[in-house]
Amino acid sequence: MTQDSDVVAAVRCINIKKHYGRGTSRLEVLQNLNMLVPRGTIYGLLGPSGCGKTTLLRCILGRLSMDQGTIWTLGKAPGTRGHGIPGSMVGYMPQETALYEDFTISETLNYFGTIHRMPKDVLKARKAFLISLLDLPSMKSMVGNLSGGQKRRVSFAAALVQSPPLLILDEPTVGVDPLLRMRIWEHLLEFVKDWNTTIILTTHYIEEARQANIKFISSLFYHVLPGRMGGLIISPTMLKINYRD
Ligand SMILES: Nc1ncnc2c1ncn2[C@@H]1O[C@H](COP(=O)(O)OP(=O)(O)O)[C@@H](O)[C@H]1O
Ligand SMILES: [Mg+2]
């Protein structure tokens, strides 16, 4: 079953509720969250640590069950048979890197490329592109010997390898130097422009989006999740930031 608005919406979240724990340790994390991510946009989730960004991403991926609500990803519920979410239709970069330490970078990308059934020549070209894009060391380097920042970039490459229509990136630019961060942003914008990719990411750095000098998409969207612990309480408002102004 699909809905008409899913022609333009890559992801729709309707009235999502999610809690953890029970009794006195019950924690309401997502409370009636509604969100619409248009296709071919970069959609940023902003909010203080612990406000539920990773939880929401895992619900969108179909990896975490919700208490209430409906999610549509590329027109179908995640986990629908034959849909590809979770699967090849989505590239996911988790907040904590989950890589095999005793694989080389090349073996890591081969592993993910093979899972996604990429033809060998396409995978080879994609690997070369990603190594250059993310300024990674030699393909023969062992993942276990890389720095934290380099491991995050390998994890990023693994999310991008099959050129998925939906990218879900949990804090992709943490541990990345400012110059590389700019380059990554430029490439994310190219994916949107050239392939109509939809990108949902979490970030602490609202400024990094501004620096990206966005010319070719009309807008970026930010969804600010409310903090629970006082201080920064922002209602879950969608701020539309138009970079053509
Ligand atoms: N599996 C879990 N069990 C219990 N509490 C959790 C679990 N995962 C996350 N939490 C709690 O839920 C809240 C939201 O977590 P998270 O979604 O990781 O936030 P964010 O990504 O915005 O930092 C935090 O208070 C976190 O401690
Ligand atoms: Mg998180």
From TrEMBL:
Q: The organism sits in which domain of life?
A: Eukaryota
User: Looking at the keywords, is rRNA-binding present?
Assistant: no
Alphabetical list of PROSITE patterns matching this protein? ABC_TRANSPORTER_1, ABC_TRANSPORTER_2
Q: State one molecular function term (GO).
A: ATP binding
Query: Gene3D superfamilies under this entry?
Result: P-loop containing nucleotide triphosphate hydrolases
Positions of transmembrane segments = none
Q: Which residues form the ABC transporter domain?
A: 11-245
- InterPro entries (alphabetical): AAA+_ATPase, ABC_transporter-like_ATP-bd, ABC_transporter-like_CS, P-loop_NTPase
Keyword set, alphabetical order:
ATP-binding, Nucleotide-binding
Would you tell me the protein name for this molecule?
Answer: ABC transporter domain-containing protein
